Structures are given as structure tokens and as C-alpha cells.
Amino acid sequence: QCGGRYPKPNPRTNYEDSGYPKSGNNWNPIPPEFYEGEDIFDIHGLFNEEDLNIINDEDDHYRNDPETRRNTNDYEHGYRVKIEVENGQITEQDNEVSVRKLETQLDEDSRDDYGSELQEPTSLYDFREDAEERIRPHYALDHRKAAKLALVEEMVYIKLKANSLFNSRDKISSFDDRCYKSLKQYLKEFEHDTKALNGTTGYIRATTVTANPLLTFRMIKRIVLGVTSSLMEICAQDGRNSEIIEAIKSSFSASNLTFPTRLDLNDALLGITRIQFAYGLNASDLCIGKIGDLHTNVTLNIDDSLELANYLMELKAYVLAYQWLTAAARSLNDVPKGDKKLATERVDSAWERLLTLIKLKQRNIVDQALRGKRQELIDEFSSYAGYATCRGEFDISDKEQAALFCFLNTKAHPYWTINPLKVELKKSNPPVWQFHDFLSDDTMAHIKKAAIPKFSRAGVIHDSKLRTEYTDERTSMSTWLSDYDSNNVRDPILFKLNKRMELLTGFAIIKPQSSHALQVVEYGSLGGHYEFHWDATEKPTEWSGTGDRIATLFMFLSDVLAGGYTAFPYLGIAVRPEKGSVILWFPLHLNGKPDFRTMHGGCPVIFGTKLAANKLILHNENFLKYKCSLNPNA
Ligand SMILES: O=C(O)CCC(=O)C(=O)O
Ligand SMILES: [Fe+2]
């Protein structure tokens, strides 16, 4: 891809490169990312000994918190999946669910750690209390947790489907039974997605759900509204339903998962909104599973559209809310006769709400009134201008293009003689470099293995106060990997990586205080992103004498099926995540002041997930290597 005209990144054409057909129904629903080899197993949680250990480790931070402490030793159900993949196709699949002992139950109080109260965000960038945000499972942000939820949901489904009470009542058709109705509705919703999932089950199903924002959204919504609210509340009122309640509770408790809450649903709604807004996608396309150029078989129903419309009205995003309302109205045609009256009432009331909010009297003038009003959301999504860069909407002049180059560097240091650096200059002033194939598969596997069990919600340190906040500006999981373990033993693989980065940049990285620990981040498919920002802190003295960040090395540990570019709006470049490559840029001018041109962000992931790591190099231990200049432009 290097050489010739600068390849203009366009997230919308990304799918073709990743092996997806542009359209049609016969695509294999398993993202290529999960094809072949180990990756297919890397997010499962419930299958074998080793994974159980990972889950246990991962839950350490829950366990250590007295508020959410629970018994993590009772993984008494087994879930075994055998899959053989050849040339990207599943040749054999064999699932087995066995529930051996399900003693632990969540008591009523711990059913929902976060309270069952509705917590609507008042703004997109709601500041959230640290403790709560750190321990929340983050089903919409953390695709690993979401995959576990998908597995548990399948187990719940299997048990509910087999429930004798349900079957016997099916015969007597007690239509006035609200529990029975909710149950039926829930099972129908689940089965609706089974079609889009080509009937896959178990692990394949779970990973397919979590790579697809629409399926993840639907799953979270279905469980929050269908299970947590409807089934658990309505069915519990009648003793005859204890088997149903039991089937649900035991599946969750045996897997040590808490029920997703309204907060998770709001995260999911925001994720869909972000993808839609950032990439300019239409509600009518999303409704039929069309995500940009990618056609998935998922379809959204009237409830999904109404949920989105109402949420968007909350955000004062009327143009988008209008799109979803129109989609909902169109979906009325698919609603079965018996439910039509109620559905029409719900659509009408959402329309009334929109008309009141935008102070109009008739539906038929809404389109005209809102036309051209892009202002909505722009105030909320401060990165509006930056999203154009995420979409690849920028130009590069011929002169600038001519200044770019790539080459194999064997001369930077004797170390690179045999295995040359693959260098690409992405921008000349200020310089942004990309080094291809910098990380070996072993190094990436090592980082991944060390980081995954430690992931918790990524925070942001705002320069006004040096404490971590959890906000929707940054929706990823993250952790820091130290070069030394708790016994002060050096990690040989990280050491070698640091050494290579020293040889690459010429800066000290290994010496204490010369760089931050390695930060590993993972963005999920529901629009996981990092809002535009500067890596320079502007508060160098407060960084305990380390000085500000003089260089950033940002490493891609995965490819991303669509979206997730690292975009620099002021520089007009967006770097496509390419597994094993690393980008290098310099957040400061040579006079020590932040170079605001280096503003950058992680564009929302559209499909798949993004694993990356960054190494921030600090000034004070490197000041002799950092040539000062009084020139504010240098
Ligand atoms: O995810 C990205 O592409 C950028 C992340 C970033 O800028 C950061 O972690 O500081
Ligand atoms: Fe950054």
C-alpha cells in the first residue's frame, strides 16, 4: 500500500478489503478476524480450564470490591464447543451445553448492582462516579463481557424453551397471562436474530453478535427490557412461574454475570448513535442491517427504532430522531394484526413528543422544517468536524503528496540491518510516521494475554484535575502493563519491545521515569472510540518531575473490520488500523509547548473490535536527546 498515490482511507470501503462481499445474503457471518487459529477462542469464557482462570482473574477487581463480592468458584456448568475451521469456513461444529449444578443464586438485592432506577444521561459526556464505572461490566463497551452475555443468553433461551411450564401453558393459551406474553415476546426476539446469525450457536454465535453493533445493541436491549424488566418483574408475581425465574437467575449467577441495566442500554444507544452520526448512516439502511457498505442480515424492528428515536429526542438530536420515527412508522406494516393498535399508539405518542419538542403542529412539515439542520448533535458531539476525517473526507495537495515516501530503513541502527524497518511517512509537517510489521505475532500475543485479564474501563485525565474520570469521551477498556511484575522481575518480551522502540526513536524508554507504562486499549463494536484530544498534558510540572509527553508510539494489535482509524483532523490524515504496525508522532513543539496540530482521536469502530497499545515517552529523562528550539513552529 506504500508508494504511489497516498491511499486515501475511507472507512466505508474498508469492508471490501476485509473480504466481505459488498452485498447479498450469502456472506459468512463470522468476521474474518475470527477465522483460523486461536483468535476464535480468545474471547470465550466458559469453555475450558484455562479460560475459567482468565475469567477468575478478570473478575478479581469485582471480587476485591466488597460491594460486588460474590463467589467466583462455582462455575458448575460446562459449555463445550468444538469448531474446526478450514480456509475460513467452519467445517465442523459441535456444541454441548450441560448444566451440572446451579446452586448459587443472586439474591434480590444483588440482582442489579447499580440500582434499577432509570439513569438517563443528561449529556453525552456525562461524568460518572469512578468506583461504579470501574466495576460495571460495560456490556456495550467491552466485547468480551458482551460475548459472555451472549453465551449466557443462549443458555437462558435453551432453558426457557425447554421449560415445561411454558410448554404446558402454550397448550392452554392463557392470553391474558402477562408473564406468558413477555416470555413469548422475548423468545421471538431472540429467534429473530438467530436468522441473521445463520443459526450459529455457542461461541461462534457469541463472537458474531459482538462484532456487529446492531446485534449487540439488540441483545442488550432484549435483556434489559425483556428479561430484567419484563420477565423478572412480571413473572415473579405468580408462584407458578418460579421455574422461569430460576432458569434466568441460575444462568446468570452460574456464569458470574450481573444483569445488564438501563445504563448498559443507554451506552448501546449512544454507540449506535455515534456510528450513525460519525459516518452519516441512514436509519432506514441500519434498519435493514446495512451498515455503510456492509450488508448484514440483521433487521431492526419497530421497538428498536422507537427506542432509538426516544433516546435521540432526549439528546435533542431531532434530525436523527425523525429518521428513526419514520423508520418506526414504516415498520408498522410488519406488526401482526393483534399488536397493531398498541404499536400505532406508541408511534403516535413518539410523534407527539417530537412535534412538541420542535414546536411544530403537523407531521408532514417536519421533513421540510428539519432539512438542512445539521446543528443538532453538533453541540453534543464536539468532534463533529473531526468525524469528516474519520470518513476520509479530506484532501491532500499534490505538493504534500510529493513530500511523502516510504522505504526500508537498514541504516538507522545496525540492529535494523537484517530486519529492516518498514517506514512510511504519513505527514511531513509535523511528522507522522507509520512503521509496518513492527510487532511480532508473539509480542502481540504476549501483550494480549497479559492485558485481557486486567482490563477495566478506560478513563481520561483532564488537565484541570489530575484524576481519572470515566466519560463517554472515551469508550474502551484498558490497562497498564508494567515492565516489571510484582516480584520485580523484568518482563523479557516487553523489555525487548522497549528496546526496539528505543532503537526506533532514539529516545530513552526503559530508564525509570523516561516513559509511561504500556497502555493497552480495546474498543468494542458499539462505536468504541476516543474523542479528539492532545497527548501533551500542558501541566508538565505536575507529572511528578517527569516532564510532558514528547513522543507517542501508538501500536495496532489488531485489524479492524470497519472504522476505528486514528484520525488527525488538523493534519488531514486518518491511519487505518493495521495489525503489527505502529504510528509515531510528537505532541510537543521543540520549545516544549503543545503542538496543537497533533490533535487526534480513535474514530468509532463500526464493525469488529480494535486492540491497540500506546507508549508515551516523557521529556525530562530525554531532554538531552530532544533538541530545543525557540522557534514556535518547529
Ligand atoms: O485509538 C486511537 O486510535 C487513538 C488512541 C489515543 O489517542 C490514545 O490512547 O491516546
Ligand atoms: Fe492520544
Give the helix/strand layout.
Layout (H helix, E strand, L loop, with lengths): L13 H4 L31 H10 L1 H4 L13 E10 L2 E11 L30 H6 L7 H20 L1 H9 L5 H19 L5 H10 L1 H22 L7 H13 L7 H17 L4 H5 L2 E2 L2 E2 L6 H13 L3 H14 L5 H21 L8 H5 L13 H7 L7 H6 L2 E4 L11 E7 L4 E5 L4 H11 L4 E2 L2 E2 L6 E2 L7 E5 L10 H14 L12 E6 L6 E4 L15 E8 L5 E2 L2 E3 L4 E3 L6 E4 L14 E3 L2 E3 L2 E9 L16
Antiparallel strand pairs: 1-2, 3-4, 5-6, 6-7, 7-18, 8-11, 9-10, 11-12, 12-21, 13-19, 14-18, 14-21, 15-20, 16-17, 16-19
This protein binds 2-oxoglutaric acid and fe (ii) ion.
Describe the protein in words.
It is a single chain. By secondary structure, the protein is of the alpha+beta class. It has a domain at 384-622: q2cbj1_9rhob like domain (Jelly Rolls, Sandwich), CATH 2.60.120. Helix content is 36%, strand content 15%. The protein has 20 helices and 21 strands. The strands form 6 sheets. A 9-stranded antiparallel sheet has the order 5-6-7-18-14-21-12-11-8. Strands 13-19-16-17 form a 4-stranded antiparallel sheet, covered by helices on one side. Strands 1-2 form a two-stranded antiparallel sheet. The longest helix is centred in the middle third of the chain and has 22 residues, at 213-234. The protein binds 2-oxoglutaric acid and fe (ii) ion (FE2). 2-oxoglutaric acid is lined by residues 521, 530, 535, 554, 566, 600, 602, 612, 614.
